[in-house]
């Protein structure tokens, strides 16, 4: 393997990662299993385009491998997803690339008892061999490949339809018209209900939306990375497209779990992101101070809140069509994150918060250059 492919492989491994250290993992209580109880707790509902979902979702990316590169207990992950459902989460996010395949299998097993009551999303688009799960270089959104991937997803997710399927990254070799054409065929066959795009170029969104309405865009968005505010969020508002922030907790940073002394394990992608470098971490921690300060302020006003909840509540307050999907492998964190829907800001609090936020300059890149190169890409024209 040459150096470039080696780097790509280690990036793939890092980007597919998940979870929490077993030492920290709490024993999970048994979530809803055999019985088909509908979601007990209410988190409120939101609309992504025409798709109705819980106000907060759950990302399962790290359920086969944590960011710290540990492997979580599969049965605990199944129980965590079922507990999320018991807490009112009805929106679950996965991708063929997570594992690859394994997170779809975990999600499929977990939701089987209540499949009809939840919305599941998955993603195609990376170049993954469908027989072996081997990661091949680059992207693959050729129409015949998309159909093969979706056929595999349906088996792994134990379902006859996927509620929302995303193109994981725009393929610079395939016109978006061909991609949407394949998705429309899958929609006509009832195998897919809605579709979205992850980290697309804005013109590609317009072209896709003109052929068939885009339900959601999924991009990184949080207090740590506010790039979508420039073009993509206004575009969503204009076209009536929902927005799903990935890494809404800043890959854990906004919870206070990372400090100036933190160094990352080999294979943890965060160690390759210059925003977390030893040079940039100390000043970027001003953001953590901000959410900590607001958590204390909320507590003092009688609303229990944690830094993670403040970070999620800020996203929820932005627009009613934003639905964050925090990822966790720990029950305590799940319960904490779902509690964010109880944390509200008044208009004056938001003004103050945003004024404080505006004073903080985040230093460093959000992703390694080789991964970032796949974002904000426009699909080629169709000849
Ligand atoms: N479309 C894309 O390209 C893309 C890219 C990345 C992610 N995603 C999706 O977005 C989802 C979420 O993103 P993410 O997992 O990268 O980042 P995230 O949700 O911002 O943060 C997850 C990290 O924070 C930790 N954490 C979660 N809740 C916590 C809490 N209350 N207190 C302390 N630590 C906490 C988790 O560890 P524990 O397990 O220990 O809780 C994990 O390390 C993924 O699962 C995936 O579905 C999509």
From TrEMBL:
**Please, which domain of life does this record's source organism belong to?**
Bacteria
Question: Where would I find the NADP-dependent oxidoreductase domain in this sequence?
Answer: 56-354
Tell me a GO cellular component: cytoplasm
Entry GO MF terms: oxidoreductase activity
Task: From the UniProt annotation, give the residues forming the signal peptide.
Answer: 1-25
Coiled coil location: none
Pfam families according to UniProt? Aldo_ket_red (PF00248)
Specify the protein name.
Aryl-alcohol dehydrogenase-like predicted oxidoreductase
Species of the source: Larkinella arboricola
């Amino acid at each position: 393997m040459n150096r470039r492919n080696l780097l790509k492989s280690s990036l793939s491994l890092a980007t597919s990662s998940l979870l929490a250290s077993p030492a920290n993992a709490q024993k999970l209580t048994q979530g809803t299993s055999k019985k088909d109880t509908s979601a007990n707790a209410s988190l409120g509902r939101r609309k992504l385009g025409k798709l109705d979902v819980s106000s907060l979702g759950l990302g399962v990316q790290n359920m086969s491998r944590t960011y710290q590169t540990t492997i979580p207990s599969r049965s605990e992950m199944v129980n965590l997803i079922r507990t999320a459902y018991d807490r009112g989460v009805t929106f679950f996010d996965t991708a063929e690339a997570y594992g690859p395949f394994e997170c779809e299998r975990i999600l499929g097993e977990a939701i089987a008892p209540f499949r009809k009551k939840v919305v599941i999303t998955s993603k195609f688009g990376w170049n993954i061999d469908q027989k072996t799960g081997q990661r091949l270089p680059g992207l693959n959104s050729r129409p015949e490949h998309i159909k093969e991937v979706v056929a595999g997803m349906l088996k792994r997710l134990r379902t006859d339809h996927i509620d929302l399927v995303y193109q994981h990254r725009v393929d610079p070799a395939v016109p978006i018209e061909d991609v949407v054409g394949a998705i429309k065929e899958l929609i006509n066959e009832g195998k897919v209900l809605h579709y979205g795009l992850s980290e697309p170029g804005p013109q590609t969104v317009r072209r896709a939306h003109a052929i068939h309405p885009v339900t959601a865009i999924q991009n990184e968005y949080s207090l740590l990375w506010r790039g979508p505010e420039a073009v993509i969020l206004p575009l969503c508002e204009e076209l009536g497209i929902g927005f799903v922030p990935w890494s809404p907790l800043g890959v854990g940073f906004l919870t206070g779990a990372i400090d100036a002394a933190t160094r990352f394990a080999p294979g943890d992608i965060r160690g390759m992101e210059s925003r977390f470098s030893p040079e940039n971490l100390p000043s970027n921690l001003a953001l953590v101070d901000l959410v900590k300060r607001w958590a204390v302020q909320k507590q003092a006003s009688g609303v229990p809140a944690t830094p993670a909840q403040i970070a999620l509540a800020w996203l929820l307050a932005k627009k009613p069509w934003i639905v964050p999907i925090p990822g966790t492998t720990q029950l305590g964190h799940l319960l904490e994150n779902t509690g964010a829907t109880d944390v509200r800001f008044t208009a004056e609090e938001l003004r103050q918060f945003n004024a404080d936020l505006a004073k903080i300059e985040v230093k460093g890149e959000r992703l390694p250059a080789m991964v970032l190169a796949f974002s904000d890409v426009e699909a080629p024209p169709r000849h």
